[in-house]
Amino acid sequence: MRSLKFLPLMCAMMLVASFKLFADALVDDCEGTNQDKFGYYWYFYDDNKDAAGAGSSTITGVTKDATGNYVVAPTANAGHTGGGIVLPYSLGPTKVPCGAGCGFNYVGAGAMLCATGSTIDLTGATSITFWLKTSAAVQVDFMVNTKEVETAGDFGYFHALVPPVPVANTWTQVTVSLVAGIGGVTRPAWAEQKNPGIAFNIKSIEKLQWQMHSDQVLTTGPGQITLDDIWIKGTYVFVPPDLCSACAGAPNSPSSPSALLSNFDKTPLNIPSKSNARGFYWFCYNDGAGRTPPVSAPSEFSAITGGVDPTADPLLPPMLIIGANGYNATNGADIKFTLGPAYKKNSTDAATIQPFVGLGTNLWDDKTSSENYNASADGATGVYFDYMLSSSDITASTVLRCEMYANLLAVDGSVHYIDLPATGAGVWKGASIPFDTLVQPAWGTVTPVTFDPTIMKKIQWAVQSKPGTTGELAIDNVYMIGATKITPAGSAIKYQFNQSKSFDGFKPSIFNNTLKVTFTKGMSNATITLVNTKGAIVARNFSANNLTAQVDVAGLAKGVYMLVVKANAKAGIEFNRTVPVTVY
Q: Which residue in 11, 226, 277, 446 has the fewest CB atoms around it within 10 Å?
């Protein structure tokens, strides 16, 4: 059987040094969204799609997206406790012609533990447990997919037939041993005949599946299975995708040199948040504004219950700096929260979104969309901060997501980020986040882009978890690692080119301490040079790009300069222009 395809992201990429150990790992409690606790997704499948239309089974009452995949979401109050994954089906009368040893109609549900094409090592896991309810006394085929079977291409997943539930529509907890062989998981006989010798490999697991097929159900027609509370038992340690526990340790001073962005110690208390070293403000946010239809009551979105002005609009709460809420009882940015229900941005969206709250600080002027922060010009190579995150969700799935906005991709809305482990109530950690450790989401629509610290816009710290989660988030002592200073806003170079139009084939500009030449005609092999009144070259750069060329002019002294632009025109003619520029 095939499943939904996702953008490959190696599960082994997590940087692990230390992490809170959990005796058992929750795959999903089926509350809120179609994303499981491993960070990947639930899916449904049937023989109609997988056998190129040869089958006639369907999953009833579940819509499909534009690509023909079923849209899966937990059903509230349908599980053993809270929500559950409900699979309503109808097994068709036509057998699927898939070769000797098979040919039964089927439908199924699955949970990805890693992106398609990758694997995850479950060493230490001894069994899988889950709660199951069926509409009739039928057997469910539980499957564990490994990379070796996927490579063989016969879909003969290691499996275990679950004994029929004694009473229809009654919950039963099932335990499946992950030991290969009798009493555990085995390959189907027909698959072993086709590709003999494939051993069960606990180090290369891809996904879990629950399948109904006609030789087990014995009768075709409608039925329903419901799943809830899937756990991996044993000593396996779950590390959430993209979690960098090596980035977090005991609070300490950042490496030298580092420049202070915010520590709140000089901020007056109990007033709306004041500015950072760039001169811009701190803020807190929640998911209220992004919901469709618009929210009308506090119970419909995630509430920030502490650290904000309680008399203000709860959808846009101004943050207050309250004394002794930072590291070592100093001032700090601190909020308390209760996460609301899961939601969709639009009613037609396939995926649901987990609720969230967060803190952030601007590095640019978001009102005029100007004054990007060139962190590289100040020498910054990353960000350090102290943080505390407590959560009522005792699993490892609640993390602190540190997001850094630079390349804002209008098409997919993705940002660069890294995840950090929760600390527990009153426990502080220090985190060092080099820019080159930041990643992008594993959405299929994301355009890979390298993080650009020369155009930073803001830093945010987000908490996203299951509905109803309560907790507290605090941030303090934010530094730009490697920076010798933080250039305040308003100190950008002011300039005037001594002409007022495009200069016969090119147009110069200076923004964010970068002098940029944009060619209005096709050029190649451009060199731009800035010369002072003494004839000394103060900046020079070469670009083979036929559209633009640029040079860093940070720290340029006031005065008059000559901008010399040389390039090759398409006709093979040398392009040579000199333009005066005044910096003031």
A: 446
